[in-house]
Amino acid sequence: MKKDFFQCDGPSGTIEFESDGDNLYIRESDENEYLIPSNALRRIGYRNHPWIFRDNGVCFRLSITWLNNGRERKRDILLLHDRQANSDLILFLKSRYPDLCFIGPNEGEKEGLLSSSRVNHYRLYALGLAATLGIISAILIIQIIFLYLSLYTSQFVMVSNAGVFYRAGEILVIFALIPLISLIMIIRKKLMVVRTDHRGLIMQKVFVRKTLMWDELEPGCVSNVTSNVYTGLFCYNSDQANVLTVSSLVEVPLRIRTGKSIVLRMPADEAGMLYRELYYRGKVSLEEAKGVKAFP
Fold first, then answer.
1. Distance set, CA 34 to CA 15, 62, 122, 124, 287 (Å)
2. From the centroid of its chain, how far is CA 64?
3. Closest C-alpha among 61, 93, 106 to residue 269
4. Which of 16, 83, 137, 209 could lock 180 by a disulfide, CB 3.0 to 4.6 Å apart?
5. Interior/surface letters 65-78, b for 16+ CB within 10 angstroms, e for the rest
6. Rounded mean pLDDT of 9-30?
7. What ranges in the chain are assigned the alpha helix state H?
């Protein structure tokens, strides 16, 4: 039986894919090997990767889901864009597993995304905001801990001023809850998020909420930008700033019929997933969707 073999490049090294018709084999550089029977395969997904690797560039994530002894297993594999072997693998998977492959446009995915009961969530870029909220929350919590410790351990806190300390602690707790709750809402996709359903799109930022119906918006030309993530605080002003990693971002302008426009600043992977839905809704062309790596 003819075997198909692909030696693909990823940021962690070479990953080998082999198919003999009945099974799909995946061998990674750390000698991990997965044997997936074709009849156990459930889904092959594709998603752009938001982080840029310094020496290799941008990647995409190939997600393979299968059943193993009645339990669902999933393996995410990072592969590099613009590699011939990786492109050949994508074409093979699309032709070999057309119903299970959610790499290119898929009618099953379209039906699910456009369901009248479906609500889809896409994150806006909020790394800087989340980090700031986390730091503020941590500082306030530490102050609260030291304040209450002083009430029980310090000989300088007398009965006459204990009430002042308690009131100060209560005020600090209230101030700490504000950034902490905001941070939790960001993590749980309640804030700094775009929600879509069959009616339209809702953008939810801090103190900003915008609702757009599908028939009144038109996506414009996107801009691909990058954002450096530094180590330390305020080190981007330093001559010795150390870049920890680089995030790939996409700025998506949405024009409204009234002439106004809003810009969604999103991580590259979230923008790609949004553009998959916009393609299925007929708002962008396939080429425009491919431009933000919604499809390979």
1. 11, 14, 31, 35, 34
2. 18
3. 61
4. 137
5. bbeeeeeeeeeebb
6. 86
7. 84-96, 107-113, 127-153, 159-187, 268-280, 286-291
pLDDT digits (tens, 9 = 90+) for 176-230: 999 999 999 999 999 999 999 999 999 999 888 988 899 888 888 888 888 877 7
Predicted confidence at residue 274, as pLDDT, reads 95
What is the fold of 4-103?
PH-domain like (2.30.29)
For residue 59, give the nearest of 73, 47, 42, 45 by alpha carbon.
Answer: 47
Residue among 269, 264, 250 at smallest CA distance from 212: 264
The residue with tokens 């801090």 is: 206
Residues 53 and 125: their CA atoms lie apart, in Å, by 19
Taking only Cα atoms into account, the Rg of the chain, rounded to an integer number of angstroms, comes to 24
Name the pairing type of β-strands 33-37 and 23-27.
antiparallel
The mean pLDDT of 140-167, rounded to a whole number, is: 71
